[in-house]
Amino acid sequence: MKTLGIFYATRHGHARRVAQHVADYFRAHGFEAEVWSVLNVPDSLDLSRYAAVVVTASVHAGKHEPEMIRFVKRNLQALNAANNAFVTITLSQAGVERADATEAEREKSAADVATMTEQFIADTGWRPQRIQPVAGALRYTKYNPLLRLVMKWISKKAGGAIDTSRDYVYTDWAGLNEMAAGIADEVR
After folding, report:
1. How far apart are CA 22 and CA 179, in angstroms?
2. Residues facing residue 64 across a β-bridge
3. Contact residues for 49 (Cβ-Cβ < 8 A; gap 6+)
């Protein structure tokens, strides 16, 4: 049975949830899947053991997690040799997908997603075979008071949810499944 490796970096847990969703999809379709926080990957782990590698990272303050950037740089050669995908999780993608957004708002959000993705590529030197932007989550109940206030202000400015008594998940799970299906087809 072929094994796929899913690696994530997260601040408030949503990237872990996305990584686990992708792994569950692979398992449901006849593959083995290993999910790793990049903070816990042993130096001895050989990425060539995986039929495909999925890198999942969220964006905070316009940048991907520094530990993911270090992981990708350290494993650049193995990633380039592997069937690979990059899942970038950002609230800007929620703006791209927001039904009540104007075309100008969607275009600005899409430009923000593209800028952050290109910055990750520039920071790491890795050009993934497949890039899947994913709308993230507002985890108001997990944020400290200052971050909750900042995220509420950002969300209000972008036309998003501002009730801080609950969390909001904007992730397109079906879109993630389509990406995973494409990888599964290639690996088969």
Report:
1. 9
2. 59
3. 3, 5
Tell me which H or E stretch contains 64. Answer: strand 63-64
Owning domain of residue 117: 3-136+172-187
Cβ(143)–Cβ(96) below 8 Å: no
Structure tokens at 145: 């008071």
Same domain, 91 and 150: no
Cα separation, 54 vs 56, whole angstroms: 6
pTM of whole model > 0.90? yes
Residue pair 117/133 in contact (Cβ under 8 Å)? The answer is: yes
**127 shares its domain with 99:** yes
Kindly state the tokens that stand for 138: 């507002």
pLDDT single digits (tens) 13-66:
999 999 999 999 999 999 999 999 999 999 899 999 999 999 999 998 889 999
d(CA 68, CA 82): 17
Are the C-beta atoms of residues 33 and 6 closer than 8 Å to each other? yes
